[in-house]
Amino acid sequence: MTASAESIPYTNADEAHRLLTEAFARLMILLDSLAPEDWSKPTTCTAWDVHDMVAHQAGGYASGFSYREMLRQYTQLPKAGQLPEDAINALQVGERKSNTPAELIAELKRVGPKTIHNWAHGFRAIKWIAIPHPVGGFMSVRYLMWVTHSRDTWMHRLDICRATNRPFEQTREHDGRIVELVVRDVAKKLNRRLSGRGLTLSLTGTAGGMWSIGRGAPSAEMEMDALDFNILVSGRFSYEEGLARAKISGDMALVERAFNNLLILY
Prior knowledge:
Elements lengths: L2 E2 L8 H21 L16 H14 L3 H8 L9 H12 L5 H21 L8 E4 L3 E4 H24 L7 H23 L3 E7 L4 E6 L3 E8 H8 L5 H6 L2 E4 L1 H8 L7
Parallel strand pairs: 1-5, 4-6
Antiparallel strand pairs: 2-3, 4-5, 6-7
Helix pairs in contact: 1-5, 1-6, 2-4, 2-5, 2-6, 6-7
């Protein structure tokens, strides 16, 4: 059954807490299972190996532990041509470059639960603030805390699983909802690109589904594994790499206009 991507509901504090809690718990199970040699393996985020990626996660969760730490991290000035989060990520990874895997895991376990509470239910004084972002557009701090943080943890768990040849645990309830919220953001961007036309997005696998995007009758369909789709729209695949993993029928030019250079914030 095809659903309208525009009808995908937004989240709320309680659901954000559940998504964050589950994403964090699954990440920690994965990290506890890694062998010593796994930590130096390269990831699809080409500047990072697994150790760097976990250092970023530890720093990210530390940023939500208090207003003071958030301010310290988020006042890092990006270099010319650098996204704001790139400067923050560089700080997080750089400060933990010499930390052992055990120390990174210990930091995550220490800061994670409080940060999840803060992101979902706390920091009320700043959640109303909206800021412009070169990828995400004009967005609220609440959106970053309720949607992006669980998505980021989810995506990096996938990165680590693929880097270390581990299975990626999925359930319809958790992973399907993460993917739904991605599709919701994709639809918002594509509506501006489709110029009144429509397409069908069919994502296969446990976390998948079928959605209509755009305002007109669908004149093209793109079918793709749900996990590969997230790799594509996060910028880890080029459009050409993603296209090789997709089945496209109908108006190819419409699909290219929609998905070429499409980037969603993770």
